[in-house]
Amino acid sequence: MIAASVPTVREEFKALSPAQFFARYREIAGFSNPTRALYQAIRELVENALDATDSHGILPSVKIIVRQDSENPSHYVITVEDNGIGIPPQHVPQAFGRVLYSSKYVLRQTRGMFGLGVKAAIIYGQLTTGKPVEVITSQPGLKRIYYFKLRIDLQKNQPIILERGSWRKSRDWHGTIVSITIEGDWSRAKQKIIEYIKRTAVITPYANIVFVAPDGVVLFYKRNIEQLPPPSKEVKPHPHGIDLEFLKTLKENKNFKTVKDLLINSFQGVGEKTAIDVLILSSIDPSISPSKLTERDLVRLAETLKAYKRFRAPKADALSPLGREIIKAGLRRIFEPEFVEAITRRPAAYQGHPFIIEVGIAYGGKVPMSSDDGPILLRYANKIPLLYDEKSDVSWKVVSKSNFDWSQYNVSLPAQLIVLTHICSTKIPFKGVGKESVADVPEIEKELRLALREVARKLRIYLSKKIREEEKKRRIIVLARYIPEVARNLAIIASNGKGDKVDGILLEKLSEIIARRTGADPSEIIMVAKQVEVGV
Ligand code: ADP
Ligand code: MG
Description:
Elements: H1 18-24, H2 34-51, E1 61-68, E2 75-82, H3 92-97, H4 117-128, E3 133-138, E4 144-153, E5 158-168, E6 175-183, H5 186-203, E7 208-212, E8 218-221, H6 244-251, H7 259-266, H8 272-281, H9 295-307, H10 324-335, E9 339-344, E10 348-350, E11 353-363, E12 376-381, E13 384-386, H11 394-399, E14 417-425, H12 442-494, H13 504-518, H14 522-533
The structure holds adenosine-5'-diphosphate and magnesium ion.
């Protein structure tokens, strides 16, 4: 049978540049509407500012100023200034004018990782207000400060420099000031933005943070600890974390004579013996040149690397956990709790990616009341606060009342209780590009639960001690109330019924006896006894 003839269709094919792609699908990067965009833009600038400071051993001072454009009230100028390492002037145009250009494409924990953030904000500004980005920057040790005003050529994915200049430094300033203008909606974004700044302040107690809002409100978080988290180091990938494409790029490496040497030098945790073992298992001669590897060799090698069980666990050097003291200082700085504790777990790994879980807990004091369903949860991934999609995050799964028996820990919900969770990893398993919630990877869930149990146990010990002490106090007060009565009866007996005047010395002696028996403070007992005596 002859098929019905299908008319020829003339289709036009075109390529999109990465910049055009993000201009078109801006919601992927978090820029879906003016409210969300204002929040996201601030986030991108603040995270770059913090990456430029704490990851490089500098105690951060970050100033965030958001002001309404006097000519157009729906336009906002966001300016973020940091005291970080600055940007080499020759890289500024690309770093701010080319999507997928970054200094963070290395295996090392940073907040940024896509090489997209600031450009997404600039593109959104360009599309909604037409205004360019302005950057002022200087590196430590440089004598000059550099200034750029630029926009992004979306089609070419390249910067268009509108103005540039430089001048001599009069003082030893280093850091970066970035200013962008975007369409926004402050009144609707306000609550989320303030929450974001506050949650950032919780885990950066070593930073001075100033936030000036368009309505004139100023938030200032003063540093309360001088200690920085340990900076992360760049590491080689772990063989469990790689794929075929990665092996193909390795093959191009001309620095090694044999496949064996290539493996030893390209991965962490692979020594001479392991390399030979893996290659033999993949039916590859360890002494051949990498250029001789065929496509089928690579497929077999990728499979062996995934399945091989005897590699050393991934190194955690690339990670930068906050540490117990910083988490405690952070929770104290914002919530002034009556009890605070934190723990950093030992490194673990999932699918070849190392990770570390940290959990902090704050109770009482000025901690707000939680809901019935679970504690107030503060989630962080690589030091970034996560604000949206809480209920679909693995952390919520672990801390919520339906999954964690809080009553076992002397806590009955609702309570003035905060749980902080921090996941750091060279690869956070985010549920989407929006970087707002973490998927429930079993290894991560398990570590979270162990960490939570450990801090919750400390809270239980604190709370049961507190309950015991309160009971003891009540008992002592009850006892102390009898002292004047006993003393009066003794006085009556001693005077053969002639007088009932209570002797002060007797009162004190009785109080001391009770104090000794109960382990209480004698002066406190005397005080209660005397109050009863005078009929208070
Ligand atoms: P990412 O943060 O994912 O690398 P961005 O587009 O946000 O991507 O930033 C691109 C690059 O610009 C960064 O990798 C960094 O090198 C540089 N950069 C941006 N902001 C700053 C800053 N405040 N200080 C120093 N470098 C910065
Ligand atoms: Mg960034």
